[in-house]
């Protein structure tokens, strides 16, 4: 396998969640083909599951699938589409989502963030098909601005928000919300599983990021809300 493909693999988190009722099949398949060099056609190492609700039995089936070695290559991919996952199923999947075998990737499409446990959220990366932003793509100035917002007191956060809101273009505010998730993930990922406060903050950032991508949303109001809850 080429060095380029190896480098691309490192950019893809092993456990990814997409939120919304849209059909994300093409979006996920493009990632698999372009970033992982993984073709789903007639591939026994590709598992597709589509169910209204994912329960404990489904989670155990997924655990057994994870335990098996790839049949034709070095990569296994599971794409799960479901309205929601039960608490029992989430707890059962914590271990495999945190430390799956090398080359195992999960893509989970859910209707909403509602009902997701902080411990579950701490082990996945939220992908936004409209505002995909990997940490490697955040420029130095953007990262500094995001860190400044994250580390500021509430009054300073409001000042940053007001400054950005003066521009009719909402893109910088949306980018700040999106970048908060990347910076927070890099800084606190190891602490989230055992720190309820950080897990709650991460969930709030993810919620704001999802809402920021919806039509008619107010990035200014979302940033003001994050100013109060972070």
Automatic annotation (TrEMBL):
Stored Pfam families: DNA_pol3_delta2 (PF13177)
Domain of life of the native organism: Bacteria
Protein name in UniProt: Uncharacterized protein
Organism: Candidatus Zambryskibacteria bacterium RIFCSPLOWO2_01_FULL_35_19
